[in-house]
Structure formats: structure tokens, C-alpha cells
Write a structure and sequence with these properties.
It contains 10 helices and no strands. By secondary structure, the protein is mainly α.
Length: 166
């Protein structure tokens, strides 16, 4: 496949390597990145063009660290068979500034008191009947939204400051 093809440009692994190349010349080329990742340039090309169905998780972990792209881990987990079953959400493709992330997170909190109250109502009798299932679905969907925005904020913080709270 030719360099710079449409498949590459849509590929998150390619995008993150190129983004890393803006601040570290070693990532501008596949050869340089592959050497740092401990894989062949052909393997890296296959990862970046979709030629590899499953990328080894240790390679994705190294990419996320070396490229300073923690979102690669979430992206990988969302696409693995377990993540698909668990419906792991991918963080937004766009990297937001702290202000936008904060507003998105706070906006998702606006319904949290109602969700808490609804969950208490549902759980109070220890039984979820047919009438409560739509409410439980709403609770879970709201919590998924909050979790996604929390994840995006954590990814931003890790990119900016490294892993915090270890």
C-alpha cells in the first residue's frame, strides 16, 4: 500500500505516530518508530494500514507510552472482542482542551441527582420489574456518558502530566 494512503490517515495508530513526530523526529518515519517499539517497520506498516487484524497488546502499550498517546489503550480495548462485548466506549478522536473537557463532564453531571434517585427507587425492593427496565437503561446510559467524559479527562491529564495518582 502506498505511503499516506486513505487507510493510513484514518488509522489511529498512524495518526498518533505522526502526531508524536511533530515533537520527536524519530517518529516521523516508520523505521525510526519501529526501532523504538521493538518491531519491524513492516509490522508497523501493517498496524497503521489495517493489515494486522489484532495488534499485540504489548505493542499498543509501548505505542501509548512512546507516542504520549494514552487514548490508544482505550481505543484498543474498545476494539478487542471483550471490549466489544462489554461495549467499551472509545474516547473522542479529537483531543480537547481542559476547558472543553470540564464543560462536557459537568454537563453530563446535570442529571446525576435524578439518576441517583431513580437508581434508589429501582433497587429499593431488590427486584427490577418490567416497568423499571427502561429507567435502569436510562441510568446506565447516563452513567456511561459520565464515565466516557471522565475517561477523556484522565487521558488528557495523562498526556499533559504523565500518569497521576500511582
Amino acid at each position: 500500500m502506498m505511503v499516506g494512503s486513505t487507510n493510513e490517515k484514518k488509522n489511529v495508530y498512524y495518526y498518533c505516530r505522526k502526531k508524536a513526530g511533530e515533537s520527536d523526529v524519530r517518529f516521523k518515519s516508520r523505521d525510526g518508530a519501529a526501532e523504538l517499539l521493538g518491531i519491524s517497520a513492516v509490522s508497523l506498516r501493517d498496524h497503521e494500514t489495517g493489515g494486522t487484524k489484532v495488534i499485540p497488546p504489548d505493542v499498543v502499550a509501548r505505542m501509548s507510552i512512546l507516542y504520549n498517546a494514552p487514548e490508544l489503550r482505550s481505543h484498543y480495548c474498545a476494539e478487542c472482542p471483550i471490549g466489544e462485548v462489554q461495549k467499551v466506549q472509545k474516547p473522542g478522536e479529537e483531543v480537547f482542551e481542559l476547558e472543553k473537557l470540564t464543560l462536557r463532564l459537568l454537563s453530563s453531571f446535570k442529571d446525576i441527582t435524578g439518576v441517583k434517585d431513580k437508581l434508589i427507587e429501582i433497587a429499593a425492593d431488590g427486584v427490577i420489574d418490567e416497568f423499571e427496565k427502561p429507567d435502569l437503561e436510562y441510568v446506565l446510559k447516563t452513567l456511561d456518558t459520565v464515565a466516557l467524559h471522565v475517561q477523556e479527562l484522565k487521558i488528557w491529564a495523562e498526556r499533559e502530566f504523565g500518569r497521576l495518582g500511582q
